């Protein structure tokens, strides 16, 4: 072979090697880019999950506050939090593209709807409790009034035993109140 053919074949071989390296580099960058996109989707999903968990916990705490206090303002704050969480669940469901994660979001929405339904039952029971407490308050006043009259009559008739038991019952009513 002549020197000219050797130089041309060497240059051609060099071009082939450079082309192979370039293609390999391009494919590697492409795979890395896909990996970054996948990582970004996972990070977004983790962020969504942590935000939802924080909102679920806040809603649960607000529900407990209402159960303990029975305050109408606590109920209003809970209802706002529940509405916000429902909207956030809908928003995030639309943003998730993975079918498996979408199924998990649908289950979370169903469970949240069940939670809201159970809380409606708690509201009804709370109203019953308020009615019962109001009735007991009236009965307690009547009982105290009757016991006061009994103690006064026992004092007028100098009946020490009746005074003792009347005051004991009166004190028990005060302790329960």
Chart the SSEs and their pairings:
Layout: H1 3-69, H2 72-95, H3 99-156, H4 160-176
Helix pairs in contact: 1-2, 2-3, 3-4
Can you characterise this structure?
It is built from 4 helices and no strands. 94% of the residues lie in helices and 0% in strands. The protein is mainly α.
The amount of beta strand, in percent, is under 5%
Q: H/E element string?
A: HHHH
Structural class: mainly alpha
The gyration radius over C-alpha positions equals: 38 Å
Would you count the extended β strands for me?
A: 0
Distance between the termini: 115 Å
Helix content: over 70%
Shape: rod-shaped
User: Quick check: average pLDDT?
Assistant: 82
Number of helices: 4
| Main beta-sheet annotation | none
- Poorly predicted regions: none
What's this model, at a glance?
With 177 residues, the protein is an all-alpha fold. The protein has 4 helices and no strands. Helix 1 (3-69) packs antiparallel against helix 2 (72-95), helix 2 (72-95) runs antiparallel to helix 3 and helix 3 (99-156) packs antiparallel against helix 4 (160-176).
